[in-house]
Design brief:
Length: 246
């Protein structure tokens, strides 16, 4: 597995999340323009159509309680809940200002690699364009900790051909899919699906470089959208007495 220590250090130096006031101002300005789903690649410019495609890829269990990690302003969770009223969402974000812009769902503020929730709390985890912020292996161990046995981990992310070029331009670590799968398996997940998604195209906001410089947009365009779906299968000793589903 690749050592991403240098890339993570670069990302943390570039990404704006240490200045939460600035993050809130930028996010509010984008939301005011109708940009509530801040993802480079999308299945549709229509938010509901895009989220419907994500919901089909995620296939969360019926009546699942899902934690949206790195939730942004909670738009994906809000729309997915409207599409699937059986689901319940809790929103997690390191940005208090972004959480303040979220819909009225339960919220967890803090580090996505140290989530303030008991073991085996959730039936599903959703991570959209947020997996490139933490160190990969500790993050997957934390996701495994908070998921119940059989819980679904779903991530919508991207894979760049040149990880160093991508992180230096955008402050986000584009983990290689093989390394994502390796980290997930090491944390007790089974790989069920991992797929490139050529049908998802770069959104207009990025294509016209309205939220990035032309150079950043050009580098982002080289990436490939990718989805992962894993099942929590390995059971730590402290979960052995958890009731088995019928």
């Amino acid at each position: 597995m690749t050592n991403y220590a240098e890339e993570i250090a670069i990302a943390h130096a570039i990404a704006p999340y240490r200045d939460d006031t600035f993050v809130g101002e930028v996010t509010a300005a984008l939301a005011a323009e109708g940009q509530r789903i801040l993802q480079i690649f999308r299945f549709s410019e229509d938010d509901a159509e895009h989220v419907a495609a994500l919901a089909m890829l995620a296939r969360f269990p019926v009546s699942a309680h899902v934690l949206d990690i790195g939730c942004g302003v909670g738009a994906v969770a809000e729309i997915m809940c409207a599409l699937r009223p059986d689901l319940r969402f809790t929103l997690q974000n390191c940005s208090a200002t972004q959480l303040a812009l979220c819909p009225d769902f339960p919220k967890i503020h803090g580090d996505m690699a140290a989530i303030d929730a008991p073991d085996c709390t959730f039936d599903g985890v959703m991570v959209n364009y947020a997996m490139g912020h933490p160190r990969l292996q500790p993050f997957f161990h934390e996701a495994a900790r908070i998921l119940r046995r059989g819980g679904v981990f779903f991530a919508y992310d991207l894979a760049a051909p040149d990880t160093r070029e991508f992180v230096e331009a955008l402050g986000y670590v584009s983990y290689a899919p093989d390394d994502v799968i390796h980290a997930a398996r090491a944390a007790g997940f089974a790989e069920t699906e991992s797929a490139n998604l050529p049908q998802a195209g770069m959104c207009n906001y990025w294509r016209t470089a309205r939220v990035a410089t032309p150079e950043q947009a050009s580098i982002a365009a080289k990436a490939t959208p990718v989805a992962y779906r894993f099942i929590r299968v390995q059971v730590p000793a402290r979960q052995m007495n958890e009731p088995r589903p019928l």
